[in-house]
Amino acid sequence: MAINNKKQNKRSNLLVICDFTLVSYITYLMYVMLDNYYFDDSVDTLKVLTTTFLFTFFIVISSLSVGLYESKLRETFRGIIRRIFVSVGIAYFCIEIVSATIGTSLKIHPYFLPASAAVSIITLVVFRYFTTRLGLLGLGKTRTLIIGAGERASIIEKRMRRDVDRIGFDLVGFIPVPGDNREDGIKSEKIVHIRLEQNLRQFIYDNDIEEVVIACDQRRGTLPLEELFECKLRGIEVTELLDFMERETGQIVVNLMYPSWVIYSNGFSTQNYLRDSLDYGINAFLAFIVFLLTWPFMLLTAVCIYLDDGFKTGTSVLYKQERVGLNGKLFRIMKFRSMRPDAEKDGAKWASKDDDRVTRIGHFIRKYRIDELPQLFNVFRGEMAFIGPRPERPEFVEQLVREIPYYNQRHNVKPGLAGWAQLNYPYGASVTDSMEKLKFDLYYVKHQSLLLDLLILIRTTEVVLFGRGR
User: Fold this and answer.
1) Is the pTM of this model over 0.85?
2) I need a surface site. Which of 165, 202, 319, 449 has the fewest CB within 10 A?
3) Angle between helices 45-65 and 77-102 (to 10 degrees)
4) What is the pLDDT of residue 470?
């Protein structure tokens, strides 16, 4: 597991270094060209270096915020180009703000920043073409062998079909094990037929296998423990399927969990005492900053909702509803009303993607998550955090607890305005969708940290910019 994590981090770090180097070089090159053709007076070298560094720094930070350094970015090449445009645009905007704030000390030439931005976009697009389409910077994918070809192993085939899902490893094949449910098992992946007790060790050495994943349906009496023990001693990773999926997909496969795995894992309760002690202070501070930046939009939204149908119906522009919070405690969440006043005249219903109960204003504010802004007051009251699983209605929680194992574990942390599940599974309107979101929620509960919170907070920018999620 450590090998793959290091390689994924190394690839992301190398992308950052390459982007920083390329943009710095391009920016300085633009200065040299403009200096030869347009500059009458010499420009202070320190000013050039400062502007170059700031512009490059802002591009890298912006690229991070739109997910360009995510190791498993699920996006078309056209989508990557769009993100590059956005990141460079944000950097350009930031440089202009800095220049306006500190005066004209960063102003080199009117053509300098536009030229640098345009050429940087072209350079980054070409560079990303070679890294994404031609598989450069793969840094030697981990050669992985799966022991098992039954129902449990098929989760890899079903959930990790695309190249982007396997960016960190090279799948050599699946070895069938006695007791595997082959009828519901591997359908189209490569099957390796060998005798585990006699040939596994030699096959691993001959094929330079670096990781063995245990994914058989029946373990008792079927695994070659001696061979696996020797592999472990020789530095070959031996990984359980649940740990492999957790690492590669950022989710916990709830339907494959079993008690012993939970017992030997880190559990679903935070051990980060610093984060816990600073929890309310950090969240209240962030809520205050966001409120200062967004109150004009909140006021405008309230006026639009009132003029749209609030004036006629006398219904409040705010929508208050009971939700389940930390440790199952109920609280009333606040949102801008995005549905008709009679939306739940027949009782609680799951929201659907093209819900006809949503108003004209509601479609827009839900797309860009403006309807969530009043939840800042829930953060002030300590009922919610910025980052955490989305709070669900008690009527639905009661049903989900009965039908989905471990569902209650998501209530071990405060619900949040943004979350890991919203970034990775942006829409959910059924029990099945709740199961999928729970896999990401439990991953967050298990791995929660200030660093993960920061990553989610930065990547949520992508949701707002591109109008994705709910």
Assistant:
1) no
2) 202
3) 140
4) 46
